[in-house]
């Protein structure tokens, strides 16, 4: 099994709206996969279909090599979907005991798994308090404990840092990094782009139910790289723009004095551009490759669609 | 299956509403029984002033008959039916509430999602949940019936001279109409069994509505509205339908439940006229056919639980 998640041609409508419109996803085993998209782009619907909670109208899902409605496949998955969902009248420990029992654990095995999970999320001291009295952040931590309870090979997290204070956010990020280091596959859906940039080696971007990008995070960031070319005068910049346009290289005039150009690095390399300009007796005063942030790439991908 | 049962026990044991039902309804049944038993002892024709001697003997005979008559429900095994009848409204409400809350709250809290992530077999989950609901209401009914069997030995209602029942004169204006002979144990158990159909119907209806509308409160409300609307519609149809159409309102759940109870009471000698109604347009069905219709209704509603949940998208 090479893919922890494999989805082909997923389609799901809500009324006339296509929430998910023909998504193909392959999440390799051992990867940390970022799943990005604006609100309402279909991320949570996709996750619910991956987990067998929603039926796709079309398409197939393989989760850990099996069907998402197969108990054996789900036994290897820990998932946190949207808001925490726990029994408010049960204590943190009783909530975990209930789900440990559902997972087939008994006695010492269940106790050990519960203690370990509570310890990891830092709720050991409040284990006997009712979940109904927990803050949003504590509920989110308890939900993370539930995710870890079965020692999953695949962890699916939908906005895991929602409602957490800055300390909690740092803790959850550290936990995700730790999960990745331990060889688990992590599928992380989030709005926090720095989170994806820091943690994920692969990323997919969803917009209006369709994937608009899917690949290595490094490659996606490279796609967004720009070459900034500075000239001494704006006349030189204008001539350079004309030369590059002839060579079918799109440019953008920049700078307060219109004496600079911005060139996307999707095509020719910086050295090739410099050579071309030199052939036309144009000598830039400055040539800088500007690395794109995931935020700018994300906005480029989602605003244009 | 065992782990599902155990997990449900962890859910249920901390729910105070469940224990209020299981312990509270038998307590209410006892209080109702005591209240009825004490007031039955006061059932006498009251006279004021001087009563002519020719009426004194007649009144004394009627009082003896009334004492025997009003003591009947508090003699074993009739007492089993009495306690169950006293608690029947509570039992139906409790059964509907338990079904609606145990199924609907999982959607309200969103926990249904985590349950299915841990145990994706929805039918098995529902079967275990149904077993718990039926078990809890069954235990409560059993406790009420057992109390009904025990109470006559604790709270003795003196029937006086049982042979005085023969002196009952329904035309005297003093006596209620009704059966005047003690019920057999088999008869009492038959009526008790028929009465269990009421909470069973409550469970089936409220459970289905809670699953369909994904809410405990809406489930309860919809089940109540349905029962009331069906009863009214059946009565209306009954009074207007002719020919074979007269059988349609006879098929309604509420109509058949009432008839089932009436049939059982008649078979036990607790009522005359059986499940027949005085409503115009009433068509009598054989009791066995009526019982089968009730069973089909309840079975069908429960089967729909499984269909609804199996097809449900879990958006919670």
Mind explaining what this structure looks like?
The complex is a heterodimer of chains A (305) and B (316). Chain A is α/β, with parallel strands linked by helices and 305 residues long. Among the domains of chain A are: 1-76 and 152-166 and 182-222, Rossmann fold (3-Layer(aba) Sandwich), CATH 3.40.50; 224-302, 2-Layer Sandwich (Alpha-Beta Plaits), CATH 3.30.70.790. Helices cover 37% and strands 27% of the residues of chain A. Chain A has 11 helices and 13 strands. In chain A, the strands form 3 sheets. Chain A has a 6-stranded mixed β-sheet, sandwiched between helices. In chain A, strands 11-12-10-13 form a 4-stranded antiparallel β-sheet, covered by helices on one side. In chain A, strands 2-1-4 form a 3-stranded antiparallel β-sheet, covered by helices on one side. Chain A is elongated, with a radius of gyration of 24 Å. The two termini of chain A are 34 Å apart. Chain B is mainly alpha-helical. Chain B has one domain. The longest helix of chain B has 33 residues, at 122-154. Chain A binds chain B through residues 48, 51-55, 68-71, 74, 77, 79, 81, 83-90, 94, 97-99, 101-104, 106, 146, 150, and chain B through 3-4, 6-7, 10-11, 14-15, 109-121, 313-316.
Task: Write out key terms for the chains shown.
heterodimer, A: 305 residues, alpha/beta, Rossmann fold, Alpha-Beta Plaits, 4-stranded antiparallel sheet, B: 316 residues, mainly alpha, 12 helices, 72% helix
CATH topology of the domain at 1-76 and 152-166 and 182-222 in chain A: Rossmann fold
Task: Please report the total strand number of chain B as a whole number.
Answer: 0
Q: Estimate nothing, just give the exact number of structural domains of chain B.
A: 1
Query: Element order, helices and strands of chain B?
Result: HHHHHHHHHHHH
Beta-strand content bin of chain B? under 5%
The main pleated sheet of chain A reads as: 6 strands, mixed
Count of DSSP H/I helices of chain A: 11
Average predicted confidence as pLDDT of chain B: 89
**Unreliable stretches covering 5 or more consecutive residues of chain A:** none
